[in-house]
Amino acid sequence: VHLLYGPQWLETIPLVRLLCVSGMLLLLTSGANHALLACGGARSVLVARLIWLPLHVGLVWIGATLGLLLTAIAMIVSSAMASTLLARAMHRHLGLGIVAHLQIARQSFLPVLLCAACSLPSLALVQDSLVTAAASTAIGLAGACVGFVVGLTLSDHPIRSELVRSLDKVRRWIDKRKP
To answer: Measured between alpha carbons, how far is 159 from 156 in angstroms, rounded to an integer?
Structure first.
């Protein structure tokens, strides 16, 4: 935040973290709209959105009258409701329940968890200047990359086999060039 927007926005960091939780909840069913529309479920999407939208507006309005923190919390509740409605629509229309949906995402759990965990040390730096904000960002990015690679190495994620295959091709290409 300091790096992109300056020190006057440092107070927004806790709110941005809460909004990230809201976004995470929406990611649980991020492909639901497309899947439902592709399979003739436009009505299911419409019904879910018509139920969710007034609730969303009401929650955010109530939160906004009570302060920014409660607005961010209202966004989390709203996102959970939207994901629940879309998950129910997917189950009704496609027969794909949330458990099956989450089993598909299970393969990404370890790489994502380690990516997030290894970026956490960057939060320990006090970001009171542009230099420390840039250092914090660099540490977070490096940690996230290391965590992601370690997560891929320890899991059975499909990207892992693609990376191994690509590295194998590079190794064979280099071996051919050796005298």
So the answer is: 8
